Amino acid sequence: MLSQDTKFQYLWNCNEYLEKASRIILATDSDDSGQAVAEELARRLGKERCWRVEWPKKNDAELCKDANEVLMYLGPDSLRKVVENAELYPIKGLFKFRDFVHEIDEYYYQSNREHLGVSTGWRALDGLYNVRI
After folding, report:
1. Residue 119 CB: number of other CB atoms within 10 A?
2. How far apart are CA 93 and CA 13, in angstroms?
3. Fewest CB within 10 A of the end CB: N or C in the chain?
4. Cα–Cα nearest to 75, from 56, 62, 54, 52
5. Superkingdom, according to UniProt (predicted)?
């Protein structure tokens, strides 16, 4: 970390503690500038160690902007749940299993004939194995 970077001086002041942390939860404001700060913090701290919170709705139309709004509108138990349910910070090229559930189900239940592949030439084996091109 660069010690001459004054904009993030608070990070460098805590460097000794942050280096030991295996999990860092980012709970920045939900607006564009808050998301930009979260992105920069994750970049500097290592996205693989960062988790981010997703602010809940404060009413039918609006999301909470930050932790303070969660406390004011929903209470401390809701804030605790938000932090406990933080998700791994997205890393380009890294996917979640749930992103592929539909495709896996489709392949497993053979509902899409394109995914079945080419016959092996033996009918008894085709039910168990096909060559996918």
Report:
1. 12
2. 32
3. C
4. 56
5. Eukaryota
Tell how strand 50-52 and strand 87-88 pair up: antiparallel
Name the pLDDT band for 115 (thresholds 50, 70, 90): low
- Confirm if 57 and 83 have CB atoms less than 8 A apart: no
Say if pTM beats, i.e. exceeds, 0.90.
no
Tell me if residue 129 falls in helix, strand or coil: coil
Token look-up 């033996």 returns 122
pLDDT by residue (tens digit) across 22-73?
999 999 999 999 999 999 999 999 999 999 999 999 999 999 999 999 999 9
86 within 8 A of 51, measured Cβ to Cβ: yes
Please answer whether residues 77 and 104 qualify as being in contact, where contact means their C-beta atoms are separated by less than 8 angstroms: no
CA distance 16 to 39: 21
Amino acid identity at 95: F
Phi-psi label, residue 131: left if phi above 0, alpha if psi -120 to 50, beta otherwise: beta
Q: How far apart are CA 87 and CA 72, in angstroms?
A: 23
